[in-house]
Design goal:
Layout (H helix, E strand, L loop, with lengths): L1 H15 L1 H21 L1 H6 L6 H19 L1 H13 L4 H25 L9 E4 L2 E4 L3 H18 L14 H18 L4
Antiparallel strand pairs: 1-2
């Protein structure tokens, strides 16, 4: 019985990763082709590529396909939360993005606080935040965390005074809190 739950989890995880991986494959092909067409030797050999409009289109496709590779962690956070959610998948995907961005911001706060020396860590600008760069692992971690929180709390009911924050709305709040904890702890470990 327990083995089936583990296999079901990894099967659902694999299915949820198919969309971003498919996007990466397509963008990788476009990125490779456009990079080859932008090489000075190729441009010199094929005069058609020297036309300003043609060069603009190829350069734009190159930049647009390259940006997908910088978004791998956030794509994983969203798609895993979406794929592992039992119901209301769009709420889970939204919470996955919020959770990932919260993780970035709180990691940056921890790094900038000066409590520890984080010089040995890889710090990068991610979605406009100078923070710990954990790559796709951070997106996967936040996506799984978001899906677990979503599946447990998306139907929670509160007393009338707080009922507005129950159900689907509570998911985002719980994910923000959990991602804050993960963001504060992750630079330390």
């Amino acid at each position: 019985m327990k083995k089936n739950k583990i296999m079901d989890f990894f099967s659902a995880l694999g299915r949820s990763l198919m969309m971003p991986i498919a996007a990466l494959a397509a963008c990788g092909i476009v990125l490779g082709l456009t990079a080859a067409l932008l090489k000075p030797q190729v441009v010199e050999a094929i005069p058609f590529l020297q036309i300003v409009g043609v060069n603009f289109v190829i350069t734009t496709l190159n930049k647009a396909s390259a940006v997908v590779f910088t978004l791998i962690p956030v794509l994983f956070a969203i798609s895993i939360a979406f794929g592992l959610a039992d119901e209301d998948k769009e709420i889970a995907a939204f919470a996955g993005f919020i959770g990932y961005y919260t993780f970035l911001a709180t990691s940056a706060c921890m790094i900038n606080a000066g409590f520890f020396d984080f010089n040995s860590l890889k710090i990068s600008a991610i979605l406009g935040v100078e923070t710990l760069d954990m790559g796709a692992v951070a997106g996967m971690l936040i996506g799984i965390l978001t899906a677990a929180i979503h599946n447990k709390y998306h139907k929670i009911e509160f007393p009338v005074a707080f009922s507005f924050y129950g159900g689907k709305r509570f998911v985002a709040l719980a994910v923000i809190l959990a991602s804050t904890v993960v963001g504060v702890i992750s630079p330390i470990i």
